[in-house]
Amino acid sequence: MKNTIKTLTIVFILVLIAGCASTPKKEIAKIFYPEPPVPARLQFLTSLTGEKDISSKRSAFETFVTGAQESRNRLDKPYGVAAQKGKIYVSDVNNSVMIFDLEKREYRQLQGAQGLGKLIQPLNIRIDAEGFKYVADPIRAQVIVFDKNDFYVTSFSSPDTWKPVDAVVYDDQLYVADIKNALIVVMNKKTGNILRRFGKVGEPKEHLVMPTNLAFDSTGNLYVSDAGRFQLVKFDRDGHYLGTVGDLGSQSGTFARPRGIALDRQNRMYAVDAAFDNVQLFNSDGNLLLFFAKPGKDPGDLYLAAQVIVDYDNIPYFQKYADPNFEIEYLVIVSSQFGDQMINIYGYGKERGKKYQTDEELRAQLKERLKKADKDKSLDKKDETVKEK
Fold first, then answer.
1. In this model, does residue 25 exceed pLDDT 60?
2. CA quadruple 60, 61, 66, 67: dihedral sign
3. Global pTM?
4. So what's the pLDDT on residue 201?
5. What are the start-end ranges of the E strands in 78-172?
6. Strand, helix or coil at 162?
């Protein structure tokens, strides 16, 4: 009897090992934007949601032998994203700032987010050139600062009641989006002293209504995503109004729930819309070039999209997911607040051997496609009306 049990146990273990060896991870089909035959500008690479996406996974045999269970440590409701070489930081509004350490293959909480650095509702996180992190916490009503080693440094407040939702550094100044008062509050980034405020200067048509996210271009102009205006509003660094991008609408080039914005080194602008669950790409003049992603739960889709950043430093960690013929120039990282694919990594670049249009040609081609789509919709509606009659 003992020999029989021993034999069955050995057979079970061998079957388990064989099963592990014979079930390779399913490869995700390559997803490009725009879709073929148009030459691709972006490729969806992968997503990060928790520890299982970055840590070395235990095999089924190891779990059987040790009795250890796979960790369910994962993001809950992410919003803000920031990156520096080897790390991706995520503001989890129901938790803390979490770190995907690409180099160490670890998932952990920001070390300084305890004691005086404890976060209540971290909404956005930004990193300056020195590696200092600035976390906007609207419930704590402060911008909390951590150093390059992730330790707590200080917290910045306002003498007036405010609600900071984003904070971005330019030179030695910190620009904070105050959604409660519809203002941009400019502080000294080291002392927290308030230098000036803007957003309610000039004509009413130039005023902010509900600023949610901020981004600077390479020349120092500030873009404000305004959920109340359904636009992106442009200012110079001193707060002078320079214009807008987009307007309220349901077609490409317009916004319903604008959220995160980011600019690349050529001042192309990425803008998230949480209603469309997509990202629109504009040129430096504010003209739409393309859009990518859609609502859903499949790879490449977004589920209540929130923030977007451009990352030039971490390409090597994601190169293995790229098509061999697709050359990545930089990463575009977009957060989803729900689902099993929360931090979505896309690569911006070009396919080898393909002839690419200029931004102007791409824009003209997009306009023609949208015009055709509108015409097709009109014909469909006309057919439905005829059938009803």
1. no
2. positive
3. 0.86
4. 87
5. 78-84, 87-92, 97-101, 106-109, 124-127, 133-137, 142-146, 152-156, 164-170
6. coil
Structure-token match 């971290």, residue found: 122
C-alpha–C-alpha distance, residues 259 and 261, integer Å:
7
Rg (CA), the chain: 24
Note whether 379 and 371 are within 8 A (CB).
no
The whole-chain average pLDDT of the chain stands at 89
Give the tens place of pLDDT for each residue, 160-189.
999 999 999 999 999 999 999 999 999 999
Residue 6 has pLDDT above 80, yes or no: no
Tokens 């994601």 map to which residue?
318
- Structural domains in the chain plus CATH codes: 2-381 (2.120.10.30)
More confident residue, 354 or 78: 78
| Residue 105 backbone phi and psi in degrees, to 5 | 55, 50
Specify the length of the chain in residues.
389
Among 67, 258, 114, smallest CA distance to 244 is for 258
Helices (H), the chain: 2-21, 60-66, 315-318, 359-388
pLDDT digits (tens, 9 = 90+) for 191-235: 999 999 999 988 899 999 999 999 999 999 999 999 999 999 999
Q: CA–CA separation, 103 vs 99, rounded Å? A: 11
Q: Which secondary structure element, helix H or strand E, spans residue 278, and what is its range?
A: strand 278-282
d(CA 126, CA 167): 7
Band the pLDDT of 376: cuts 50, 70, 90: low
DSSP string, 208-263: -S-EEEEEE-TTS-EEEEETTTTEEEEE-TT--EEEEE--B-SSTT-BSSEEEEEE
**Chain centroid, CA 286 distance in Å:** 20
Which of 58, 137, 134, 128 is CA-nearest to residue 95?
A: 137
Distances from the Cα of 205 to the Cα of 178, 180, 320, 352, angstroms: 19, 19, 48, 46
CB of 283 closer than 8 Å to CB of 268: yes
Classified as helix, coil or strand, 156 is strand
Average pLDDT over residues 255-267: 97
Q: Residue 121 phi/psi, 5° resolution?
A: -140, 75
Measured distance CA(207)–CA(314) in Å, rounded: 37
